[in-house]
Each structure stands twice: as C-alpha cells, then as structure tokens.
C-alpha cells in the first residue's frame, strides 16, 4: 500500500496547499536557471567574437610571440569556444568567477567592492524618484491638460531626453564649482579616505556604524548630486507612468460614485485611486531600480564614482571577459531578484493577489 | 472633475530634492599631500617585472629603484641607481656592477646583489610582457640563473650572449624591468613557482622614493614618502593618484582645489584654464612619434615615388600651428627629440605641385582612391581630416574609416590596412627601441618572431635591417650616434611612414605646486621633486 492512499484528508489538503508554492518555487528556479544559461551563453559568445584581443589587452603591443602564446594558453583561449564556455560554466557553478585581468583580484571580490557604491547611489536615487515622482504624477493626472500638468510633463520629458553626461557636468559646474553647495566627484574627500572600516561597503552606513559623523556628512554631500541626477531621471519615468495609470483610474465609475457619496477629493485620489495604481507602479519601480543598479555608466564616469557601471565599462574596453561576465551575471541576479521581490510585494498592495499564496 | 486646494498642491511639490541642500564645507587638499587626477584604469599589475602600461610605469618607477637610471637632476646622463659603478669587459659581453653600500628596502632589509640578480632573472623566467627587453640579450629561461650572478653581496655580474652596444645594454638596465625586488619577500609569497608575481601584482617589495600604500583598481593609488630613500625623503608625505576618467571632471576638481594636478586634460579644458590664475598649465616634450603607416603590400604604395609624393601632401606645419598648437611639434624622423641621436630632420612640407609631378612619374597622373583607418578619438580624427583634404589636392581620394582605437590597431597588427594613423612610444631611452621597430624587418612572412612596424607595413629592406643591427652593436658611442642619424634619413626619405609629429605632455597644476619636470618617457615622471607652497 502506498503512503498516499493511507493519508488522511487533512494531510492531503496540506499537500495540496504546499504543492502550489512548491510548483511556484520550482518554476522560479527553473526560469532563473534558464535565464542564467541564456545570459552567460550570449555574453560569453559576444565576448569571444568582439574585435578586441583579450591577450593583447594583457601583454600589450610589444610582447614577443612566445609571451603572447603563453598568456593565450594561460587564459585558455587556445581551446574551442564551446569547451571554453563549458569550463567557465563549471567554474561559475562552483562559485568561481575567475580573476579580473585589469584588477588582478577575483571578480567576486571586485563586484562586492563596486556594487555597494552603485547600491548607495541607486537607493537614494530611487527614494527621490518615488517620493517626488509619484506625487507629481498624481498631481499631473488630477490637473490634466492644465498648466500644472504641462509643467510637470515638460519637466519629466526634459529628464527623459537630456543627455545624462551633459546634465551631470552642468550639475557639477553649478552646484559644486560655482555655488559650492555639494562636494565634487568621487565618494569621499581624500582626507577622509580609509578612515572608516568597510563593513557593508556603503560609506554612509559604515561611517555611522563607526561613529564617524564627519565622514558620514562628507560622504553624504558627495552622494547628493549624482543621486539627485539619477533620481531626476527615474523621477521623470515614474511621474509619467503614474500620470497615465492615474488617468485610467480617474476615468473609472467608482471614482465618480465615491465622489457622489461625498468623500473628499483628496481621499478619493490619494487613497482609492492611487491604491489601485500601486500594483502597476510596483513593477515600474522595481524595473527603475533594476536599471539604476545596473550601474549608470555615464553618471559614474562624470562623477568618478567607482561603481558597477564604471567597472563594467573599463572591463569591456579592456576585453576583461571574466569581469564582464561576472558583472552581467550580477545584473541578471539583481533583475531576477527584483522581479521576485515585486511578486512578493503585490499581495501587500493588492488584496486579490493574497489569495494566490 | 477633481479640484485641488493650493495647500494640497504645495504639500506634494515641497518634496523636491534640491530643497534639502545646504552648503557643504570646502576642503582643499592637505598640505603634505599631493593629489593627482589621472586616468589609471590601465594599471593591471604593480609587479615591475610585468608592468607595461603607462600608468603603472609612471607609478612603479616611483616605488622601485633600479640598477642604473636617469635622475631628475640631469635626465641626459645615465647614473647609478642601485649600482654605484660598473665596468664592461673588452669584448662587451660581461658587465660587472658594484652596488651602493648601505641601501635598504622599505622593509628595512639591506639591498644586496643577490636581490638584484634575482630581480633580473625573474623578468626572464616569468616571461611577461617586458621579458623581451632582456631576452634579446640572449638570456633564456635555461641560462638566466647562470648568466646573471651575485659573486658577493655587493657585486652583480652578468654576461650577454648576443652582440650589443654597451650603451644599449645599460639603457636596458635603466628600464622599470631592471628594478630591484626584495628576493626574500617575493619568495615568501611565492605560489606555484610564480616568483612572487601574484603577490607583487598588488603589493610591493621595493626601495624607491615612495612606498605603495594601497592600490584600489579603477579608483586610486596611494604612495607614501620613503624616509630612508638614498636621495633623501621626498618633500610630499603622501601622493594620491585618483582615477578620474572624464577630463572635464578633472578640470573641475583642479579649479576647485580638490586635486593639485590634472594629467589628462584635452584642449577644450586647457584653453579656459590658461586664464585661471590659480592654475598653471605647462607642456613638456614627450617621446611619442605620430605617423601614418603606408602598407607596401598595396601595389600603389609599394612604389617609392608614390610614397614620396604622399609625404608632400600633408600640411605638417599648418596643423602644428592651428588645432595642434602647443601640443605637437613637427618631427619627421622616427626618433623624438631628446632621445640619443635624434635629429631635427624635417624635409617635407605641403607641396601639391611636386606631389602631382611625382605621382605622374609613378604612373598615377590622375591619382587614386585609398582607404585610411583613423581612430575615432581626438586628435587622430582631426589630423585624419586635414590629411584627407590635402591628399585631395594631389588627386588622391582618401576614404576615412573611423573606428575605436583598439579596432584600428587590430587591423593594423594583422596588416589589413592600406593607410593608417597611429602613434608610437619607445620602450626605453635608447634609439634602438625605435629603430628596432621602424627600421627592422628580417622576416616578412605572416608569422614572424617579432612584428615590428616595418613588418606591419610590409617594408622589407634587408639592407636597412642590417644597418639597424649594426647600430645596435656599435661599441663606440659617437659612431653609434652617427649611424642612427643615417638611419633616420633613410627611413624618412624612403620608408613606408609619413612621420608627422612629436607630442607634448600637457599638465595643469594648482599655482602652489612646484618642481614637476617630467622627462620624455614615463619612467622619468618624478614626483620626489614636487613641493607645495
């Protein structure tokens, strides 16, 4: 007799209740693996067909043919591409991302070093983007086609279409060079370098843990400008999306009904209508955060911000394949993680989604 | 529709990010610290036996002392570094160096001939990029340990098996590769027989003017004055080189006083800085050679008359006087001024009539069409356009193919170009470094042992190669100089290169920074002479 047939109805119910989440988890794991495989495969092949020679990137122009051959063999480029890929994949599965050519550190160490810099920037930028962008979007929707709406749309269109590079330089020129309101490029002044021990890699957090208030403020004033700039860009996107979601909601009959019942317009807009928009907004915000974490290459270049974007750019230009692949996988993980996170958040903002759990 | 009250509207708008900004404190760089903004992402290693990138050459030359060297006080004279004196055997094969007594590594350990011998041997044994500097002397993995020896703690003896001029050998011993590495420290960190290479990539075991405190790849490199340095401790206690990729950002940092020197400024930044009293802009001759390579596998370019005609279709002085002003000087030989034997031999100027006559003689009275590979960065692109325009005056229709530098180099290295513009810098302060590439090609097949520039351009002239070899072997230095003068004329007159310019290095510093006088190669970008008032 098999175990299943002897199970009580209650136990069977339990199995069924768990089967859903288990299937969900299995599904997620499967899609994660598939995404990874695709990600690594495409990046790997692109890296190999790039018209840049990774061996020359290491040995330089003037090395002898023997040195060239030795290094080529050392990094395994003499093998066929499928074999190279297979080897790489096996290593990654064991948690080894190889050593970066340009930093000569393990890629994982490098990523753990540069990612917090980007994270610090992105979190602040996202906060600015959401805290300012959502109300602006709502406001624009409630003032549709009036001057307030026009101004907000213009401002967000500007943030959307202005080259980041230019905006960053102008921001530096104005707020750092001319007005002296903020600190300049980099994460800290040189005199504050290496004071605070690295724990999280987020200087603002680490300095508070160490009780170095002065370092915290220095890091903060370095952070404000690039974060505001990135915040402005995400604000532009969030505001535009909020506006269009809200417009759809405000045209629904329930809005008219609640207003007719005498509810204050403020409550109707900010509680009822906005409440229904959050589900869509969560996805928008998660994707915005994802693209911020990917590393804003140009922002990091202008602000000499040693984050993921700058790291990936340098790696790419120097044909540092291990670093590029490692970084790509990290970005992939971030996106998948954020997607899962927004899935988790749905039930909190949408009661209907709760039943699915 | 919905109506908002004014109060509600203000509530939402007050969250603007700029509303929270208050003035931040201004911090100039500390008095005893020199902060330099530069592009240092090319550093891939700090091991002097492996370094071959510009930034690592500059910085590790500050950290490591070497066998012999050119010093800041007189960069035209080779003097002892670790060595106090030396003798060369009459057959110019055996070199004996007496080391300075009492030298110390930054760790406190004495510098011995044993360390020096080990340091030279490991360059050959590790076989990294700089190994060719020494292997050309006849040193190999098998003989390095027997040919380079330390008979006692104060004496280094080495023997070379190839024929080389002593002046050339000594110049090779003045390169970064001839740095003295502390043997005990390197071997203590040895892994899989790497002679300490893995550890020395990001650590140092040196005896130079500065100690390396930290290297954060892509971020900064910090040096600290070595109080026991043989020429006295440098004036600046700390030197921090910050990686600032964007030149416009470098300029802002400099103007604001957050850095003391900016090393990678472009003309757009330099011009406005000229009028800033808090900043000083200086230019120093650099050892580069900017040239156009003409691939002789092309039937038309194979013809010496065609090549000569093209040399008359470039407006050298016009460019140097206008958009390259202050940054480039006309120099039409393969040796930059400042290198031993270099001559100011500039026979060409823009002369379309003469060029047309030469082209007619060569059988191309109506000119021809040709592809020109040009890197898409400044000032390659601008020079390319000028050349395109002046070549047109002689009937040569130039099609510019603009691409990323590395891509252009890729095609050039595999000889796929017709016409390409590129720059070259010597590996060491000796004319052979350039002659060996511009005037040396002993195997024109597709897989030679070395791939000099003459090979890349399919210029196969055994007589010229023989002259280059002879010059590298000439024991009499005066005769040797005369041989290089001759070689320069030959290459300028008949070679596959339209040699254009020698560049300047432009440096902007805060007005209170003094004493920076760099030499023509990166090895001689001394920091120890810099002071801040």
Summary of the model, kept short:
The complex is a heterodimer of chains A (357) and B (533). Chain A is mostly helical and 357 residues long. Chain A has helices spanning 3-6, 9-49, 54-59, 65-74, 81-93, 107-142, 147-161, 164-178, 203-209, 213-250, 253-260, 265-293, 297-302, 308-317, 321-349, 351-354.
Topology:
The complex is a heterodimer of chains A (357) and B (533).
Chain A: H1 3-6, H2 9-49, H3 54-59, H4 65-74, H5 81-93, H6 107-142, H7 147-161, H8 164-178, H9 203-209, H10 213-250, H11 253-260, H12 265-293, H13 297-302, H14 308-317, H15 321-349, H16 351-354
Helix pairs in contact in A: 2-15, 6-7, 6-10, 6-12, 6-15, 7-10, 8-10, 9-10, 10-12, 12-15, 14-15
Chain B: H1 6-13, E1 33-38, H2 54-63, E2 68-71, E3 74-80, E4 83-88, E5 94-99, H3 113-126, H4 131-135, H5 144-147, E6 148-152, E7 155-159, H6 166-172, H7 183-188, H8 197-200, E8 210-216, E9 220-225, E10 238-243, H9 247-256, E11 261-262, H10 267-273, E12 279-285, E13 289-294, H11 299-302, H12 304-311, H13 316-321, E14 328-330, H14 352-361, E15 369-375, H15 380-393, E16 397-403, H16 405-413, E17 419-424, H17 431-438, H18 453-456, H19 462-473, H20 477-494, E18 497-510, E19 513-514, E20 531-532
Parallel strand pairs in B: 1-10, 1-11, 15-16, 15-17
Antiparallel strand pairs in B: 2-3, 4-5, 5-7, 6-7, 8-9, 9-10, 11-18, 12-18, 13-17, 13-18, 14-18, 19-20
Helix pairs in contact in B: 9-10, 12-14, 19-20
Question: Can you tell me about this structure?
Answer:
The complex is a heterodimer of chains A (357) and B (533). Chain A is mainly α and 357 residues long. Chain A contains 16 helices and no strands. Chain A has helices at 3-6, 9-49, 54-59, 65-74, 81-93, 107-142, 147-161, 164-178, 203-209, 213-250, 253-260, 265-293, 297-302, 308-317, 321-349, 351-354. The relative contact order of chain A is 0.13. Residues 1-5 of chain A have low confidence and may be disordered. Chain B is an alpha+beta fold. Chain B folds into 3 domains: 1-64 and 208-278 and 511-533, Periplasmic binding protein-like II (D-Maltodextrin-Binding Protein, domain 2, 3-Layer(aba) Sandwich), CATH 3.40.190; 66-184, Dipeptide-binding Protein, domain 1, CATH 3.90.76.10; 289-503, Dipeptide-binding Protein, domain 3. Chain B has helices spanning 6-13, 54-63, 113-126, 131-135, 144-147, 166-172, 183-188, 197-200, 247-256, 267-273, 299-302, 304-311, 316-321, 352-361, 380-393, 405-413, 431-438, 453-456, 462-473, 477-494, and strands at 33-38, 68-71, 74-80, 83-88, 94-99, 148-152, 155-159, 210-216, 220-225, 238-243, 261-262, 279-285, 289-294, 328-330, 369-375, 397-403, 419-424, 497-510, 513-514, 531-532. Classes of the chains: A mainly alpha (357), B alpha+beta (533). At the A-B interface, helix 3, helix 4, helix 6, helix 8 and helix 10 of A face helix 1, helix 4, strand 10, helix 9 and helix 16 of B.
């Amino acid at each position: 007799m098999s175990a299943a047939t002897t199970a009580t109805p209650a136990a069977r119910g339990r199995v069924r209740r768990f089967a859903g989440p288990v299937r969900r988890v299995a599904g997620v794991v499967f899609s994660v693996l598939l995404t990874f495989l695709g990600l690594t495969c495409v990046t790997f092949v692109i890296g190999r067909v790039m018209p840049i020679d990774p061996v020359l990137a290491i040995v330089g122009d003037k090395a002898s043919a023997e040195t060239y051959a030795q290094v080529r063999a050392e990094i395994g480029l003499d093998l066929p591409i499928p074999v190279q890929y297979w080897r790489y994949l096996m290593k990654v599965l064991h948690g080894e991302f190889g050593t970066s050519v340009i930093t000569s550190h393990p890629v994982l160490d490098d990523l753990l070093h540069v990612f917090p810099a980007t994270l610090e920037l992105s979190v602040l930028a996202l906060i600015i983007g959401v805290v300012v962008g959502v109300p602006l979007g709502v406001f624009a929707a409630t003032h549709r086609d009036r001057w307030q709406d026009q101004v907000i749309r213009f401002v967000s269109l500007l943030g959307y279409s202005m080259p980041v590079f230019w905006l960053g330089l102008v921001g530096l020129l104005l707020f750092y060079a001319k007005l002296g309101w903020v600190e300049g490029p980099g994460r800290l002044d040189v005199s504050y370098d290496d004071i605070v021990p690295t724990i999280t890699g987020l200087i603002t957090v680490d300095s508070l843990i160490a009780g170095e208030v002065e370092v915290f403020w220095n890091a903060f004033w370095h952070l404000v400008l690039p974060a505001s700039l990135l915040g402005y860009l995400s604000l532009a996107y969030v505001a535009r999306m909020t506006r269009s979601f809200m417009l759809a909601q405000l045209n629904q009959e329930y809005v008219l009904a609640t207003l007719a019942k005498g509810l204050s317009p403020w409550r109707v807009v900010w509680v009822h209508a906005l409440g229904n928009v959050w589900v869509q907004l969560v996805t928008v915000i998660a994707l915005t955060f994802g693209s911020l974490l990917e590393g804003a290459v140009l922002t990091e270049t202008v602000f000499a911000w040693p984050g993921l974007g700058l790291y990936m750019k340098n790696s790419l230009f120097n044909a540092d394949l291990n670093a590029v692949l490692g970084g790509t996988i990290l970005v992939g993980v971030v996106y998948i993680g954020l997607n899962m996170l927004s899935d988790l958040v749905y039930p909190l903002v949408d009661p209907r989604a709760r039943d699915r759990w | 529709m919905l109506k908002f009250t004014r109060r509600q509207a203000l509530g939402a708008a007050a969250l603007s990010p700029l509303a929270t900004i208050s003035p931040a404190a201004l911090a100039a760089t500390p008095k005893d610290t020199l902060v330099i903004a530069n592009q240092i992402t090319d550093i891939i290693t700090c091991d002097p036996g492996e370094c071959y990138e510009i930034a690592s050459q500059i910085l590790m030359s500050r950290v490591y002392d070497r066998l012999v060297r050119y010093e800041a006080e007189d960069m035209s004279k080779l003097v002892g570094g670790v060595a106090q004196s030396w003798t060369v055997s009459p057959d110019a094969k055996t070199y004996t160096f007496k080391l300075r007594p009492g030298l110390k590594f930054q760790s406190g350990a004495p510098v011995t001939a044993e360390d020096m011998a080990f340091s030279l041997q490991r360059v050959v044994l590790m076989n990294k990029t700089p190994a060719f500097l020494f292997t050309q002397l006849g040193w190999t993995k098998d003989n390095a340990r027997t040919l380079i020896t330390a008979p006692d703690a104060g004496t280094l003896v080495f023997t070379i098996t190839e024929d080389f001029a002593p002046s050339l050998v000594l110049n090779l011993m003045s390169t970064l590769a001839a740095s003295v590495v502390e043997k005990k420290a390197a071997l203590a960190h040895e892994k899989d027989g790497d002679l300490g290479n893995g550890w020395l990539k990001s650590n140092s075991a040196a005896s130079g003017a500065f100690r390396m405190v930290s290297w954060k790849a892509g971020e900064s490199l910090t040096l600290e004055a070595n109080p026991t340095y043989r020429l006295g401790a440098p004036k600046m206690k700390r030197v921090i080189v910050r990686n600032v990729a964007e030149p416009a950002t470098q300029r802002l940092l400099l103007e604001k006083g957050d850095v003391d020197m900016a090393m990678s400024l472009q003309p757009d930044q330099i011009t406005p800085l000229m009028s800033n009293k808090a900043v000083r802009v200086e230019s120093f001759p650099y050892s580069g050679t900017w040239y156009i390579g003409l691939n002789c596998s092309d039937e038309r370019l194979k013809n010496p008359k065609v090549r000569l005609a093209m040399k008359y279709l470039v407006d050298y002085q016009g460019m140097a006087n206008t958009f390259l002003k202050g940054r480039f000087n006309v120099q039409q030989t393969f040796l930059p001024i400042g290198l031993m034997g270099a001559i100011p031999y500039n026979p060409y100027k823009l002369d379309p009539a003469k060029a047309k006559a030469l082209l007619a003689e060569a059988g191309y009275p109506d000119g021809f069409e040709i592809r020109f590979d040009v890197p898409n960065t400044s000032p390659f692109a601008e020079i390319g356009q000028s050349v395109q325009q002046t070549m047109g005056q002689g009937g040569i229709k130039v099609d510019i193919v603009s691409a990323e530098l590395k891509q252009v180099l890729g095609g050039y290295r595999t000889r796929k170009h017709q016409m390409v513009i590129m720059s070259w810098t010597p590996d060491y302060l000796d004319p052979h470094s350039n002659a060996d590439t511009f005037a040396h090609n002993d195997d024109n097949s597709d897989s030679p042992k070395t791939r000099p520039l003459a090979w890349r351009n399919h210029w196969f002239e055994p007589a010229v190669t023989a002259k280059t070899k002879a010059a590298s072997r000439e024991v009499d230095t005066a005769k040797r100089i005369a041989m290089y003068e001759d070689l320069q004329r030959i290459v300028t007159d008949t070679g596959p290169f339209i040699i254009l310019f020698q560049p300047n290095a432009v440096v902007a510093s805060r007005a209170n920074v003094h004493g920076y006088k760099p030499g023509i190669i990166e090895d001689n970008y001394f920091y120890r002479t810099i002071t801040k008032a």
